[in-house]
Amino acid sequence: MLLILESFFVQIMFVFGIVVLCGLFISFCNKCLYDACGDAAFGMVRFTGYIGTPVHELSHALMCLLFGHTVTKIKLVNSDKRSRTLGYVEHTYYKTNLYHQIGNYFIGVAPILAGGAAVLLFVWLFLPDMLSDMTGAVRSLAGLESVPVLIADLWKILFDKGNFVNIRYWLALIFSGAVVIHMEISRSDFRSGLRGLSVLAVMLLVTDFILGFLFPSALAVFTGACVRIGVGCLLFLLLPSVVSAFVGLVSLAFLALRAMFGKKARAAAVNHHRVSGRKRK
Description:
Oligomer: single chain
Shape: globular
Radius of gyration: 20 Å
Structural class: mainly alpha
Largest sheet: 3 strands, mixed
Number of strands: 3
Number of helices: 8
């Protein structure tokens, strides 16, 4: 019984937890950026939104289609300057359909996955040699204990002082930063994802009990497969997470300087994306 619960916890953390934690980390770094920008935060978000918002909203829409949801309304870029919502996707699904319910998780986390793919695409387009160096560093990963070393290696490759005189580097960084700023998990994304995650967690637990009592050796194999999936997700999201960490560190340094000179930063409330799922009977 204890082995089953331990396996379930490992599976949840690796298959789902890594993606969610990366999303929350990026959201935290973006919050630091918004606070550093103060009143100018929404203007900055709107400006970068011409790149990041379509990626964010199209990822929601794509997952809606993949999981059989009906997209009723979509706005890739909201040109209404009076609105503080840059884009949105509205969709409907049948609450009795298990596949639809599972889809809610992937719809919620879609901007994280699509944003990671977009960042890799920009690096590949502008800096293919750098991407090759990063790929070599990833291939040298010996195990989970080597992940901190890998992060340090990626940081050195990405922010090497020789890059700062390369115009292609700045283009890649600007485009990637614009996407990362819009990779965060919004409140509506979190609510949507949580509905699907609860269904997936129950299915996973039932599967573990069946395997644990009937096929104990298969449970270990299944858990190992989940760990490999999680490591793959971690490697996939490392690059946008490193870019986001850089944004967050610069923002925190700016906030610290403002505090030193007695200028208190105003907290910026920025909620610029919305995905809305309506149940159908």
